[in-house]
């Protein structure tokens, strides 16, 4: 529901949200997730507050999600063993912003593709992105509990992604399907989950993962996304990561892969 005060001129973000609501009234009736001004603003931010472009993006995303059966209940679609091998645990920054942790060096992408096939592999990562999106939605709602506040671009933020490439093997890149599916999955993240992340921090970047990273980097282009890349010098990357999260939280995230 619209929450804007009636005693002041609307902000440009509020005007854009009102128009977007009118454009996707049918979508809102089907999916209550879109009956949320902060969530709609996330789509608008990805399209520089253009309601027409945001509408097009929403309709393409909802169509894609329906066709691939994308939702957030991983356990409903995949075995516990599979999920364990490709788990993406969540934590929070020192300011409480959600953090998603990808240990890319420990994930055997080729084995994942062989186990479930391309379409299911793409579905899996779409469902992981949906979990990230839910974390983002919940945080932004909690941060905006004052219903008399004004809606601006600063009212919402994306989450933080930590990507650890330690132990990423050159063998991963010998299979063309690994590379092509990695590009498809990053495209899906950019096209169907707008502004879901505010920052991605890549570290332990060896030459092999750098090759993969360079293939999908051009698609990480949504507005306000910050990319940080660090090499294998632990002193440097750990100092940066520990400015984002508490040591205990980082240790807990890393423990999923020990």
From TrEMBL:
Gene Ontology, cellular component aspect: cytoplasm
Transmembrane segments: none
Segments forming domain CRAL-TRIO: 71-258
Domain of life of the native organism: Eukaryota
Identification of the protein by name: CRAL-TRIO domain-containing protein
Organism expressing this protein natively: Allacma fusca
């Amino acid at each position: 529901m619209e929450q804007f005060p009636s005693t002041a001129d609307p902000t440009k973000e509020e005007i854009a949200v009102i128009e977007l609501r009118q454009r996707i009234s049918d979508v809102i009736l089907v999916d209550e997730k879109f009956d949320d001004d902060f969530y709609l603003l996330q789509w608008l931010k990805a399209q520089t507050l253009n309601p027409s472009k945001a509408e097009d993006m929403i309709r393409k995303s909802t169509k894609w999600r329906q066709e691939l059966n994308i939702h957030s209940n991983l356990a409903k679609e995949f075995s516990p063993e599979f999920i364990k091998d490709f788990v993406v645990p969540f934590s929070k920054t020192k300011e409480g912003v959600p953090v998603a942790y990808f240990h890319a060096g420990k994930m055997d992408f080729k084995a994942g593709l062989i186990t479930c096939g391309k379409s299911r592999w793409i579905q899996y990562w779409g469902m992981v992105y949906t979990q990230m999106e839910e974390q983002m939605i919940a945080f932004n709602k909690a941060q905006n509990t004052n219903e008399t506040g004004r809606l601006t671009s600063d009212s919402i933020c994306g989450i933080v992604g930590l990507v650890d490439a330690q132990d990423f093997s050159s063998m991963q890149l010998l299979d063309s399907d690994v590379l092509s599916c990695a590009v498809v999955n990053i495209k899906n993240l950019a096209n169907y989950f707008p502004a879901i992340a505010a920052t991605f921090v890549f570290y332990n970047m060896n030459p092999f993962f750098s090759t993969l990273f360079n293939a999908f980097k051009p698609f990480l282009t949504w507005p306000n996304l910050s990319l940080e890349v660090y090499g294998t010098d632990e002193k440097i990357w750990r100092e940066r990561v520990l400015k984002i999260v508490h040591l205990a939280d980082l240790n807990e995230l890393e423990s999923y892969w020990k």
